[in-house]
Amino acid sequence: MAWAYIFFAGLLEIGWALGLKASHGFTRPLPTVLTLIAAALSFWLLAQAMRTLPAGTAYAVWSGIGAFGTVLLGIVFFQDSVSAGKLACLLMIVAGIVGVKIFS
Prior knowledge:
Elements: H1 2-22, H2 29-49, H3 55-78, H4 84-102
Helix pairs in contact: 1-2, 1-3, 3-4
């Protein structure tokens, strides 16, 4: 169950990270509220996962999912720049997440 918590916590991290951009510095009410809710739920799920998983493993996977998804969706929704180097680095993040999971 802890791995499911981490997975959903990572998805929510993507949501709140993108929500920070969409809230325009917390000046837009709806994105601000949704961002804060997503952040709170993400941290809660991470904390639940850390009840059984090692802290370093849980945090590495959570932040890796968040980083990967935020960069990818930033490219799609906010027209963030894309390059071969950036895509290669995203693949390394995925490799790191898989490696941490395999060796945990």
